[in-house]
Design goal:
3 domains, seven-stranded parallel sheet, 23 helices, Rossmann fold, OB fold (Dihydrolipoamide Acetyltransferase, E2P), RNA-binding
Amino acid sequence: MSRKFTITTAIDYVNAKPHLGHAYEKITADAIARAHRALGRDVFFLIGNDEHGTKIEKSAAAAGVSPQEWVDRMAEVYQSTYEKLLISWDGFIRTTEERHHSGVREILARVRANGWIRRDKYTGWYCEGCEAFYTEKDLVDGKCPNHDTEPRWVEEENWFFRLSDFRDRLLAHIRENPGFIRPESRRNEVVAFLEGGLEDLSISRAGVKWGIPFPEDPNAVVYVWFDALTNYISGVGFGTDPAEFARRWPASVHVVGKDITRFHCVIWPAMLMAADIELPECVFGHGFIYQSGTKMSKSLGNIVNPLDVVDVTGADALRYFLIRELTYGKDGDFSWDAFIARYNAELANDLGNLVKRTTDMTARFLGGEISAGADTGKDRTGLRADAERVTATVIRAWEDFDLSGALESTWSLVRRANQVIQEKAPWELAKDDLRRAELTGVLDELLEAIRIVAELAAPAIPGKTDEIRARLGLAGGASAPWTESTVWRHRPGWRVAPGDPVFPRIDRKKEPEKSEPATEAVSKRAQKKAKRAAPAATGPAASIGIEQFRDVELRVATVLEAVPVEGADRLLQLTLDLGDEKRQVVSGIARHYAPEDLPGRQVIVVANLAPATIRGVESRGMILAAESGGRLALLAPGHEVAPGTRVS
RNA sequence: GGCGGUGUAGCUCAGUUGGUUAGAGCAGCGGAAUCAUAAUCCGCGUGUAGGGGGUUCGAGUCCCUGCACCGCUACCA
């Protein structure tokens, strides 16, 4: 049995339809999966849906259906979308499936048996939109920072996972396995996070219905961690099919978004350690694809359905763009301009035209056939050496998650082939019967180079490379592993089937307006550039109107009392006399002013600043100070004035 | 505030362990060719390598230090 390669993506939360971000993750993971199949590995590519939680219940209720109906319906939507995108998944796990529940029960039982689960009381602010708890300081004006809604105070008996006990083991694992977290920048962040210490994790929720019942606790369901993350093992037989699990686990790579990389590098490995299960070899945090100025977000409803893109030029074109345009692991932009530019230049002009002109010439000059007995094999073009060099480079790139580089290198062979056509000028050779052997040989080598390009590009554009193979007269789609298929060998013969362009050019002028998404919004990068180009427009140097200044209510106040904030070495809690009222303000001046020196001093306070809670203490206002050379100076009136006096 | 990262041609980016005239693609300009999707091929870049300082025979590549932006994080208000 060949070496196994198990690759997963994050499972998708199905409270909304799939968008470009989903497509990006699946497409890149699919390309990696296909590349590893071509490398001869025993690949298992797992994707799936996350189908529990209150947000699902709400989406279902809003649609007037039961949660189960809702997730069934969404599963079809996601699967048909991914079929359209040519995603070649081997396994699709849904968290409502019995096999998943079984896996969750099994891992919980193991973790519990090992003594890593305890019962305790949980309190916190719960936002239903986020399905997450917040501490006081996370809230903005008492509201959820993501949803602008008021969370509710929750106190419940809960099950806890002793996550904090795994800190050192996790750090050691990351240190000993440099490839565990990729790209490297993500690893640094996770290490920093771990060094900051961990808290135990609440893993159950009371009062939630739509979820996996928590074993031995009829009132609670399993909270997201032990539910969703467990898909990676339940999807390959954990808890149901030990033989399959032994064959597929550990995963070679979890492909996830950079926003959830940390969970996959901390909580998930700790869960596995606690259950005595092997850890995945690698967690790869990919970047985001931006468009119209905001991160694709299911919650904000700012979505662009990838199908819109697919309908313009087909799935392969979108796949090519996403894989080629973004450096894997970094963020990038989707824009129709960039998409069309790459499509026309690299797919239509470079590759598509190469296929067309070569097959057309073979048809025109040689009747479409190069027979087995033709005078080939002389290596007249040098393409053989080019192909061998490029193949080695491309394979290395696929193995190293350098998806863009793999395509870039592949295209160097495309360019080389176009150069060869120019150099050898087959149309000239065709005029001279005495040079027919040379003509045949050149076209034979060009066709062979195209065949190899199709092999190397297949992970990215599997549909179109099948078409190209058909043009070359080759049967079937997927072919042998690269170790065989990329070997330069002269075919016994060619029988080409020229046809319409494989990648018809996109006429920019005729590019329909309808396909231009939300133009009023500016991309994040464009905003950045605009900011750079015209700093006066947004920077502090810009002049403001007097009205704007008047919006800021500055008042003189007298400090009545100052005490340190418990547990904070920079904060003082001040009680201020504002004339008609007393105000409590928290200020980060403890390093510069002793509490006992402050009472009686006058300060300037921003009186209408929105209240905030800092370190558990409410602050209603801000006092002004200037910092210079590391020293802080409180602002005060030149001589004593009545407290509450407005500053203008 | 702390930690990490980025800053290279109009645009997107490569640049291995410091070493010859700093590269590629796109866009632009000029030309060739005509098999091909007005496609292709050839030629054309004096780029303050964000700024300053340093180490070295020699630095985009190492060190120090401001700056700008990004990410994570924090007891910013």
